[in-house]
Each structure stands twice: as structure tokens, then as C-alpha cells.
Specification:
alpha+beta; 8-stranded mixed β-sheet; 247 residues; 4 helices
């Protein structure tokens, strides 16, 4: 049987100079409080929900614009890493309890030990941060879909609502979904985070009051930049189930 991910963390990666702004904004958006900062330079913080287990962290990165990445929490890190390598991942860094990997499509992600997290954070003011979207160059898209479908075999792997999307839907109670988006060109790819919203316009207005700005509006999602200049999306998915809204 393939190793199983028992929990996951969405990482909000922002330039170190903007990390404090990111922490304040995302704590307000998710209705959480920021943990004590840790790391050699205080670059890591966890957003702690009330009465539930955390599933979102903020990282200040030393170079580049940042973005997002996924930490998968597993009972046996070595076995999970070996499976990821067999499916086509590359090992980037091995720190024992934490292994950084790169998917065939170029996405960085981490395998870490599971600490028994089981309780998902609640919906906050009609919205929930629950999805990482991997933006994949066209030439790597099929391999990326195959990789994540193989690495997470107990998740539902299905075509998205539009032909350029593919969704990996976890078992009930898991805090994070994965969405693969095929880019229309051979750009460098990347990753961003998505929120499921009962009312996208109302959530966008609330985020603007906290310092975000709207970049573009589309029929099924709205693109924003947070006060640390990081891109993310508000989607019309049901924040309680993660599914598409009823017709």
C-alpha cells in the first residue's frame, strides 16, 4: 500500500521584508492568531485557529517574490519520499524530519512527519483557505497530473470544471485540496492559494479593507494581491464542502 498523507499545511511564502504584513493580513483573513516566530531569522510562523489544528503557515523567503507550497504530513517520511521519487520527483534537500522535493512539473513541496493533527479549522466569515493551485506549463501538465494522482491514491483525481483544470480532492476532514492548472504557454509555473467563498464579492470587499487589492475578476474566481504583493484567488466553491456551488 502506498504511504498516506494524514494532514497538510499550506505555506504562504512571501519576501522576508514583507513577512510581517503577510502574517497580519492572513491571520485576520483566517480568523487565527500568529504563533511565536521560529527559525534562524524568525522566518516561520503558524496561524493557529481556535479549537482546531493548524493547517496554514507563513514563511519569509530570503530571495524572490515567494508564492506558495505544500507540506504533506506522513507517518513514514522515508517511505513517502521513496514513493515520490519512484513517481518522478527529485530530492532537493534532506533534513531528516523534513525532505524538500520537486515534482515533475517543477513544484516544490515538502514531506514532514505527522504530529496527529485531525481537526480542521472552521469556515470564517463565509470563507475558507483550503486549496493550493499549481500553475503548470503545458508540456509538463499530463506528467504533473499523473504524479499527484499517483502520490495521493486515496484522493479523488478528477477533471475540473474547465478543460485547463484537474482537481485532487482529499477524503472528508482533510484541510487542503490540490488544483492543477494548465498554463497557456511555457512559462515558469508556480503556485498560489485559493479560498472557497460563500460570497466572492463580499469576501473581496472585506479583504480590500484589510489591505488587499483586486487584480481581475472572472466568472468563477477573483484574483487579488495581498499587502505583501502575493497573488491569491477567491473562488465560488462551497467553503464547507469545497465543491462547486449548486446550479
Amino acid at each position: 500500500m502506498s504511504p498516506t498523507a494524514h494532514w497538510a499545511y499550506l505555506f504562504i511564502d512571501r519576501p522576508a521584508s514583507e513577512s510581517a504584513r503577510a502574517c497580519d493580513f492572513w491571520a485576520a483573513v483566517t480568523g487565527t492568531r500568529l504563533s511565536e516566530l521560529r527559525g534562524d531569522n524568525g522566518e516561520f510562523g503558524t496561524l493557529l485557529p481556535e479549537g482546531a489544528d493548524a493547517s496554514v503557515k507563513v514563511q519569509g523567503v530570503a530571495s524572490g517574490p515567494g508564492g506558495a507550497h505544500l507540506d504533506l504530513c506522513v507517518a513514514d517520511v522515508d517511505a513517502f519520499v521513496e514513493e515520490a521519487l519512484r513517481l518522478g520527483a527529485d530530492r532537493v534537500l534532506d533534513a531528516g524530519a523534513l525532505v524538500v522535493l520537486r515534482s515533475p512539473g517543477g513544484q516544490l513541496f515538502c514531506a514532514v512527519g505527522w504530529d496527529g493533527e485531525t481537526v480542521r479549522a472552521p469556515v470564517v466569515r463565509g470563507a475558507r483557505l483550503d486549496q493550493v493551485c499549481f500553475d503548470v506549463p503545458t508540456s509538463r501538465y499530463d506528467a504533473e497530473v499523473a504524479f499527484w494522482s499517483g502520490l495521493l491514491p486515496d484522493w479523488e483525481s478528477r477533471a475540473g470544471s474547465l478543460p485547463e483544470f484537474h482537481a485532487l480532492v482529499p477524503p472528508p476532514g482533510f484541510p487542503v485540496r490540490v488544483l492543477l492548472q494548465r498554463l497557456g504557454d511555457e512559462g515558469p509555473g508556480g503556485a498560489h492559494l485559493d479560498l472557497a467563498c460563500a460570497d466572492v464579492d463580499a469576501t473581496a470587499a472585506a479583504h480590500e479593507r484589510l489591505g488587499a487589492r483586486v487584480v481581475s475578476r472572472h466568472p468563477f474566481w477573483t484574483v487579488l494581491r495581498d499587502p505583501a504583493n502575493g497573488t491569491y484567488c477567491l473562488t465560488g466553491r462551497d467553503p464547507w464542502t469545497g465543491g462547486l456551488p449548486a446550479a
